[in-house]
Please model this.
Amino acid sequence: MRTILLSWLALSIAPGAFAQIDPSKRELIQLGYNQPLEGRGPIAAYGFYYLNKPQFLEQSNLTLRLAVAPVYMDSELGLTGALGPNTDVGIGLAGGGFADGYSEVHAGKYEQDESFLGHGGEVSSSVYHLFNPDQRIPLYAVLRGAVHYSAFAEDNKTGDTFVLPEDQFNFRVRAGFRWGGREPLMQPDLAMEISAWYEGEFRTKPGLYGYGMDRELQHNPSLFWGRALLTYTLPECKHNFGLNLTAGSGTKLDRLSAYRLGGNLPLYSEFPLSLPGYYFQEITASRFVLFGAQYSLPLDEKKNWAVTAVATTAAVRYLRGLEQPGQWHSGVGGGISYRSPKDAWQILVAYAYGVDAIRSEGRGAHSIGLLLQFDLERAHRNLFDPAEQPLRSRGLERIFRFFD
Model:
């Protein structure tokens, strides 16, 4: 029971920081859970309260972003126009328990004796520059620096002779360009993004760890990745579709810095690498290309019930030491969702099949999942003005306002 509880808390963390100061007021509760139907993988779940409050103090240029999970908090105080009319600054503070842990999965087997816990905290500073203030879709440059401290600890099933990495400070820098964006919602009605990123990490105590010191933490791993996505809802019939292409590479990567693909938790991080049907973060890659598509169509006249289909495929180059047969991984799935009449809450129950996932009886893995979103902001106000056209989507309007 202790292992299950700690694993849940380790994954109940807030998503990555939004890549510009969000001008929309938001108050959300988000929950997500994946459960494999055969085999045993890392617990895959998140649960957090998300608040974004422009004009945090009356008549001020401050925006508070706050994401709170059971044992973790991620926050940023944004100062609009701090370095000029189109340049904002953010000061971030994050930290808590279990957020820096690591779960080893190799060829479909969850290696609990090689997994461990990690706790940490971070202070960051970000600069957001808007290049095109007169355009509907914003183009931002982002520069972020952070100081992060990690303290590692044994789980109750970590091997007795397994040596943990040393506790240490890390210095991180991220730079990127983002055109457009995606709201931090379970299923946005509209989104468009093209972005490119670099992130470098500089560890104060790199070195060997593991069984017989058989693995290494690199001094300065670097990541390079990009994403293109489109989500759109047809105004009259309310069919929703989404496309997502993400690719990444890096240098001097190790287990704690490499790309992790698997599971289907869309708000676990700012750049989730989903493979439906797989264990959470089952595939560890030094290079990858991932393509995903989803389509939802309503089942009833009021558009409250909908059925959703999703498919994802990825080509990967494995991190050294975590190789397995085959370079391609694909997953498919489907589910039924419900939105309340005023869109204050929505829920999705889904099934997924990991086509190429390795299990004890060969290839193929099944899982079920649950996603839940409760919008406290919408729950306290009417979504539609009687004077508006009945087919007009308030969700679309909100995203367009965000792009302004």
Observations:
- The first helix runs from residue 2 to 11.
